[in-house]
Amino acid sequence: MSMSPAAPAGAAVSTNTVDIKExxxxxxxxxxxxxxTVTWTNDDQDxxxxxxxxxSGPLKSSTLQKGDKFQYKFTKAGTFDYLCTIHPFxxxxxxxxx
Length: 98
Hints:
Elements: E1 17-20, E2 25-26, E3 29-33, E4 37-42, E5 51-52, E6 69-73, E7 78-83, E8 91-97
């Protein structure tokens, strides 16, 4: 019996929604096409942010309380790494393709 290997942890998933829960972004890495709007939803009791790492990108949400959403439309191809400024161990990536 042959089994295919599971996708590696952190492998990019093709979706435009990211859930924030249990102090993690899920999926941690997403792949979208230029022109796609990605929506992050805070499902945690604690507040979180979605902020480009090193302040060198377009993502800068306000503090998201439980149930709050943040949306951003990606207009350029590239790799966009982000984190929660309140909990910097929480990281994620959006890969935008042409």
